[in-house]
Amino acid sequence: MLVYATVPGFYAEVERVAHPGLAGRPVIVGGDPRKRGLVQSATPDALERGVVVGMLMREALERCPQGRALRTDMRHYRDVASRLRACFRRLTDRIEPAGLDAAFLEPRRREQSADDLAMRLRERVREELRLPLRVGIAPVKFLAKIAAEESETTGILRIDPGEVTSFLAPLPVSRLPGVGAKTEAKLSQLSVHTVGEVAALGREVLEEHLGNHGLAILGYAQGRDESRLRAAPHPRSLSQESTLDSDELDLPVIRERIEELAQRLEGGLALERLAAKRVTLKLRYADQEQTTRSRTLVRPVAASRDLAALAADLLGRTQAGIRPVRLVGLAVASLIRSRREDRQLDLFPSDS
Question: Taking 50 as the threshold, does the pLDDT of residue 349 lie above it?
Fold first, then answer.
């Protein structure tokens, strides 16, 4: 059995945690309402009042006047997402991330059941991050995702193999993977509105009207999903970037921002218990031209002081100080599990 875990309305829920005074109040996250900003996330109570992700923030506030509108803060959300993944990895190494707010997971072999993993995930995320986690358990990936979405009352919903047909049948066809507005309209012309009606329509009719796409949809309607969990032992890379307050020529100011990025990366590496063997510095100049400089290490590093020292050296190989810089980014790759001896900066053989 597969597990899918997600934090609905992730951005908005993260803001609730960051601002305790918002507890019990609808939260809507997005762009500036005065500049036709769009809703990117909303808490369940805001959705219940008619807010829809993707609508204008101004319209969302008209539908939910008691809601609190907040501007998107991607840096903060990425930091919390790293902590969320770290919570997951402490319970199982069989993980396939599915965006910032979710992941597919499998229990450790013979060590735990899917139900035990689901309960422990919810407890860990609630205790460490104070975020509400919904979990779905099912034989295949898309079903586990739908189960999580349907788990409103208890936060955990399990679909056993013998329950797949009865669970799927009443759902609207739009819940199936690959069914967008155009496909839904074509199925509606065939008087098909539910998953059960798709399954009853049969192979020949679906192939005639929708081709191979129709056959794929039929497979989902019958509870089949050929995709398998693609587990990664840990992230392949981590990155941080920051836009400067103005076009900057002052090298000490740029180095100070690099040190801040290095500190954030140190925290991310520590959460995942990783060290890096490759460091990359990215600059975007005021004219929007972008450049990168990288260094590959003999031995991995994880401390912010080492990351900042490497980045400062790479900075010397750019035109910073001559050309004004607008954005600074720092990334680490070739990540491996850290060891105690991975604490000292070593010489490095290759540059790019």
Answer: no
Instruction: State whether 81 and 138 are in the same domain.
Output: yes
279 and 130, same structural domain? no
- For tokens 């990895």, the residue is 89
64 and 140 share one domain: yes
Does 270 lie in the same domain as 137? Answer: no
Mean pLDDT, the chain, whole residue set? 90
Neighbour-count burial for 81-110, b at 16+ CB within 10 Å, e otherwise: bbbbbbbbbebbebbbbeebbbbbbbbeee
Select from 244, 251, 259, 5 the least CA-distant residue to 124.
Answer: 5
Q: Is the pLDDT at 351 greater than 80, yes or no?
A: no
Take residue 263 and report the two structure tokens written for it: 């500190």
Tally of domains in the chain: 3
- Exposed/middle/buried for residue 114 (C-beta within 10 Å: 0-12, 13-18, 19+): buried
56: phi then psi, degrees, rounded to nearest 5: -65, 140
Q: Write the DSSP assignment of 135-171 as a string of letters.
A: EEEESSHHHHHHHHHT-TTTSEEE--GGGHHHHHTTS
pLDDT tens column, 13-37: 999 999 999 888 999 999 988 888 9
> Any idea what DSSP says for residue 107?
P
Say if residue 154 is in the same domain as residue 283: no
Q: Please write the tens of the pLDDT for every residue from 318-340.
A: 999 999 999 999 999 998 887 65
* 8 A C-beta contact, residue 135 and residue 3: yes
Question: What is the token pair recorded at 293?
Answer: 């400089």
With respect to residue 229, please indicate whether it lies within any of the assigned structural domains: no
Q: Is residue 242 part of a domain?
A: yes
Domain region containing 267: 237-351
- Segment 286-309, tens digit of pLDDT: 999 999 999 999 989 999 999 999
Spatial separation of the C-alpha atoms in residues 55 and 215, rounded to whole Å: 33
Give pLDDT, residue 93: 82
Give a yes or no: residue 131 inside a domain: yes
